[in-house]
Every structure is written in structure tokens, then in C-alpha cells.
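User: Quick one: structure for sequence A, then sequence B.

Assistant: Sequence A:
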Amino acid sequence: MEEKIRNNRMVKVGLVVSAGKMDKTIVVSVMSNYKHPLYKKIVKKTTKFKVHDEKNEAGIGDTVEIMETKHLSKDKYFRLVKVMEKAK
């Protein structure tokens, strides 16, 4: 969706695709667009990140803002900044 840098930390906006199966962890899907190097078409790419959610406040379908941080586990190196929009 969108990304920007704050204090050399990557900030991304994505959609929660999994919550509640792990304690204090959610899985966020971030979509990005890029131009294919050979065919010059716009291609959508989806990347999933495991995100630390200290208060377990995000649910499936929520739009959230996440920020890069130090490694909290083997593959969890983002933390939840805020829930931008709750799922309906």
C-alpha cells in the first residue's frame, strides 16, 4: 500500500490476515507495485510480515501501520504502531 522512512526505520501500511493464533503476534500483508523489468507492466507483489502486537488490539481485516524494529524473534522484526481502520 504505502511505505515511508522515519528515523531510518521503515514504516509500512498493510492488512491483518491472521490474528489470535499466536500470542502478541499478528501477520500483516503489505502490497507493493513495481514495473516488470522486461515486460514493463505493473505487477502487484504481496509480502507477509509477522508483527509484534503488545496489547493484542488488532484483528483480522484491520488496516494497520507497522514499523521496523530490532529482531524480537527469528522472523518477527516489525511492531504495531497503530490501527488505522478497524474491520467492519
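Sequence B:
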Amino acid sequence: MSTTRAGWAQFDSTPPLGLPMGGRGPRFSSANEVLDSLAAQAVILEDRKGYRTVWISIDMIGMTWQMTSRLRMELSAVTGIPFEAIVVNFSHTHSGPMSGFEGYATTVEKPTALIAYEEDLLTRAVKMVIEAVENLQAVTVQVYHGTSEIGINRRGPNPDGFMNQDLWGLDLKAGNGRCVLFNYGCHPVMVYGFAWDSISADFPGVCRDKLVETLGANTQAQFIQGCAGNVRPRRLANFEDGSFRQSTSEDYILTGGQLADDVLAAIEAGGEDLDLEINCVSGFAMAPRNMEIIPPLSHWEELAESEAELERNLGVYWVERLRSGIPPVQFLPWAVGLIRLAERHTIAWLANEVVAEWFPLLRNWLNDPNLTAWGYCQDGRNYMPTDELIPEGGYEVDRANTYTKAGPGPFKVGVNKATETTFRALAERI
């Protein structure tokens, strides 16, 4: 008889119309229709010793550390699950609500309707995890590995640019249900290309629906976003002129369907049975910012007079910040952690928008070719480039930093060392 238990639950997290949409920086664009619903999901794993970990997946751009820490602390208090064993992952759909508002570089006040939505979401998330605890039952656990080619390095698009084709997942089977978790790294940025003001889970939602349709109504299909910081859907790549074309409604349906087929192929190929022996550790890598190349005050004063909302919001915020006497951020405390499911089966989770190149670095530092890496955990903002990308510049390295209060300066070389040191220390603890 299995000594491993698991429980899962989910709810419809679609926001009301009229809220500002995420994935647009500190620009306020309201949602006016629902193309397809959003979801919040949770799965709890319990090993034979009774140690538990809970993984929460939410369809949104990504909350701030302050918000997720509040949720994790409350969950730890009501369930007894250790704080560092609770992971909140964001699908990073650009067609969901503007969550993470507190982290954007803007002086505009947070809309009261958005506050109400998030408060309700967090309350329902606690209830969801409690439901998952109540649903704990004996399960078989199988880990599967596959590949998918739905993504491509967006710094181009570059067919030869690095990206991870790795597809990882767990297949949990119980007497009266099944939970299939799947992890892949690719930006869900297809829907807002043809339906700017529509709410949608984008291709991950399509993938989940197809998996449930194929595997049965008693299946929970749960997506965990990976190292997608510089990865976009390959289907939109135009290699002739080195750009990405405008998306259509067909694109996200086909991309989600292809990912579902890849998940099903990996499951059907067979996996490895796991007898869970869980341990979780976490910490912070102190990622250094380059204080020497921050644009001068005059740059932000000029932006503050712009007619474009995005530039104006940025300019006003950084003018006030630089004049306040509080210096720009010199280090970003970057939340990271490790989850060991069993011997030779470890997951590295990282906050923020992690570029694909972190994946092989982590595997090398931890001497683990089977390591799985998740991005967008606990905090869904701030691009995290590797040292190698910093000299290249570009959106993920430079401009994106101005959109959040953790900027405006880019990272400087030394991020790799800080991250390696932190993960090696975590590996010693686990």
C-alpha cells in the first residue's frame, strides 16, 4: 500500500470586468470581455514521514513578494506546512488582472476594485488549500520527462538562441481522481495580440482543458511556469525579418493543443515511480544593480512630461523617488529555493522572470543533470538575466528594470556568483 498521499483543489479565479490588465507595465488598460476563464489550483504532497509541500498555481501576471508572503504565512499557520515548503507559481498570462500593482513604478493609486479582487482571491486560496488537505488520499506518484518545441528564444527571434525544450511533470493517481502537473517555460503572450482587452489564461488554459478532456473529468491539470523570461511561442516567429508576427485566435488554440499533446506523449512514454522523501529549503541571492549607468534626473523629468501614459507614469515615479533622498535599489534580494522530492529528484524554484539560460547553470552548479527549474515563484516581476546576457543589453537587461520599484538600474556582472553561492548553500542544507 502506498505511503504517499496527495490532495488537490481548484477554483475559477476570473476577475470582474473593468480591472486593469497585467503584462502592460504601469499602463492602465481595462478588461472588457472574458475570452476564457482563469484558474487557481493547488496540490499538496505528503511523504511517508508526514512532511508536506503545497504548490499553488494562479493565472495572473504575478503578485509581489509581500502579497505571497502574507498568503504563505497564513497557510503555514492553518495547515502546519512549513513556510519554505509553500510555493506560489504564476502562469504569467498577459491577459489577466494587473496583480503585483505594488511593485510597479507608478504614483497612481491602486484601484479599489483590484484590491477587492485580490483580497477575495487570497481568501479563496486559503480555503482551496484547506480543501486540498481535506482531500488527502493515497496516491501513486510518477515523474515523467519529455520535450516540447512550442517556445523559442525571443531575443531575435533566434532559432539558434538558447531555450529549454524540457518538459517535466508529475502524474498523481488516486482511486477516485488524478492530478497531472506539467512544467514548461514559455511566455503566454498570444491572446493580447489579437484581443487586447480580453481576459484569458492564454495557451496554458487551452492545454489544461485538452488534458482534462483526454484524461477524464476527474483530472486536475495544473501548469507550472518555468524559465520563460526570454521565451515566446515559436508559432509567432517570423525568421525572414527577425520579428514576431501579430497573433490570431487560432494561434493560442494550436499552441496549447500542441503542448497538451507533448504532455500526453511524455506520460504515455512512461515515467519513474517515486517514493517521496520531501525536504524544502529557501533563501535569497543578493543580485547587484549597476548604479553607475542609471539615467540622470533630467531623463525622468522629460518622461514625466510625455503624452504617453506608460512613459509619463515612469517619469513621475522616478523623479519623485530620486528627489526623495532614497537611493535607487542597489541589490535585489532574489527569492530562491530547492524542493527535494526523492533522491535524484530535485526542483529549483526562483522568483521573478527567469531567462532560459539559468537552467543549465543551475544544473552545472548543483551537479544535477535531472534538475527541474521553475520561474515566476513567490514574485512574478523583475527580469533576471545571467552575467552572459548583461553586455548584450536589450529589453530584459535594460528597459524592463525601469517598470518596477526594484529598478531603475540594470543588474551588473556578479549576479551569477551571488546565485551560485546561494544555491550551493541551499544544496548543503537540503
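Residues 5-273 form one domain. The chain has two domains: 5-273, 279-358+381-429.

User: Thanks, that's what I needed.
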